[in-house]
Design a protein that fits this description.
By secondary structure, the chain is of the alpha/beta class. Helices cover 44% and strands 13% of the residues. The strands form 2 sheets. A 6-stranded mixed beta sheet has the order 1-6-5-2-3-4, sandwiched between helices. The longest helix is centred in the C-terminal third of the chain and has 17 residues.
Length: 401
């Protein structure tokens, strides 16, 4: 059994805020005496099922709690998803259909088990209890909260002040998320810092229902590869959990040096004492940030692809990006000699977003063909095998038939 201080140290790794640590310690001690697991809750709104590393920050914390022996429960918001979480939105969200919610929920489950142990994870759908509330119970639930309190939420406040409509049903989202905690009698709920209002609602409603209030653990949002904006697929600054090992390693090496420790804390399971030593080494210039980043990249890949693929990704990176060699797993395509269009092949395989961008790279000397700098795409002789290198990182082999 891991002692109390060690458990708290692991639980608090990377945490932005906790309400509160004293209650957490009391719950851990009480659960140990009673010989029971703490119920740890995470709600997922299945409206955007493609998970990247930013989404795993909270899941990784759930995994750490799972490894400490506590019961993690994932709440798939199939009922709340029909309303849509208004958090951070400047207008009402379009409601999802039952079919969309269930389809997204299935995708979510497939992806969350890349982090969590499926054998130790309980998955529940909140329609199980929310769909059974009668109107009297809904009115009673609504009576626990005032409109003034709802308008304390930054997104609702801004919409109210700008005369942007707020539908009454949107006020029910935080109430329903809070009621999920009542239904589970949750001991701990996790979420991002942007979910503060909704997470605290669970504490309010639990007390109203005579339960002990849950501890709220809020994880920070993580910046993407640009080091500035929140990780986002739309911004292209993300690392996807489904990406191939080599791509995941390569992208991890693009993380700005100043985010190395934050990534260690938020997207890995490396012990906090080890992370503290790494941070100390970096501050005192005892280690090269590039070498530390390579260890971080390997750790991230290992979590999602295993040890063998992590080793292979590391060797590939060393050979391609440190020694300038052609990768062994280079993307290979075939093309007909008749009507050969090199630019179109490159764009079709997403090595550049457009032909104009490719032409710009050629003018800047950023394109090589069979090791030689290309100055004119039209002059390329479509014979045999063409190995095209764009910048330092992108390769494609074209076999001309």
């Amino acid at each position: 059994m891991i002692n109390l201080d060690e458990q708290v140290k692991i639980i608090l790794k990377g945490v932005d805020d906790i309400i509160d640590e004293k209650e957490l310690r009391e719950k851990l001690v009480k659960a140990d005496k009673e010989g029971r697991q703490l119920i740890v809750k995470l709600g997922l709104d299945p409206s955007a099922p493609d998970i990247h590393l930013g989404h795993t920050v909270v899941l990784r914390k759930m995994k750490q709690l799972q490894d400490l022996g506590h019961q993690v429960v994932i709440i798939i918001g199939d009922f709340t998803g029909k309303i849509g979480d208004p958090t951070g939105k400047s207008s009402a969200r379009k409601a999802l259909t039952t079919e969309q919610v269930l389809e997204n929920a299935k995708t979510y489950q497939d992806q969350i088990f890349k982090v969590l142990d499926p054998e130790k994870t309980e998955v529940r759908f909140n329609s199980e209890w929310l769909s059974k509330l009668n109107f009297e119970e809904v009115v009673r639930l609504a009576a626990t909260m005032t409109v003034a309190r709802m308008l304390e939420r930054e997104d609702f406040k801004k919409r109210y002040e700008s005369n942007t409509p707020i539908s009454v049903h949107e006020f029910f989202y935080p109430l329903m998320q809070g009621y999920d905690s009542v239904a589970l009698n949750a001991d701990i709920e996790l979420g991002g810092t942007d979910q503060r209002f909704n997470l605290l609602m669970g504490r309010t409603l639990q007390r109203d229902h005579g339960q002990e209030a849950q501890v709220v653990i809020m994880m920070p949002l993580i910046e993407g590869l640009d080091g500035v904006n929140k990780m986002s697929k739309s911004l292209g600054n993300y690392i996807g959990v489904d990406e191939e090992a080599g791509v995941m390693y390569q992208k991890s090496m693009e993380i700005p040096d100043e985010l190395i420790i934050k990534y260690y804390n938020l997207v890995t399971d490396v012990h906090p004492d080890v992370v503290s030593e790494i941070e100390k080494d970096l501050k005192e210039d005892r280690r090269n940030p590039r070498d530390v980043k390579m260890e971080l990249a390997k750790e991230i890949v290992r979590l999602y692809h295993g040890e063998d693929k992590a080793n292979f990704a590391e060797e590939r990176f060393k050979s391609v990006f440190q020694k300038g060699q052609i990768p062994v797993d280079i993307l290979t395509v075939e093309a007909e000699k008749e009507g050969f269009d090199l630019a179109q092949i490159i764009v079709d395989n997403k090595l550049t977003p457009s032909k104009s961008e490719l032409r710009r790279l050629v003018q800047q000397g950023g394109v090589k063909i069979n090791g030689e700098k290309c100055t004119d795409l039209q002059a390329v002789n479509p014979e045999g095998e063409l190995v095209v290198q764009i910048g330092k990182k992108k390769f494609i082999k074209i076999i001309v038939k």
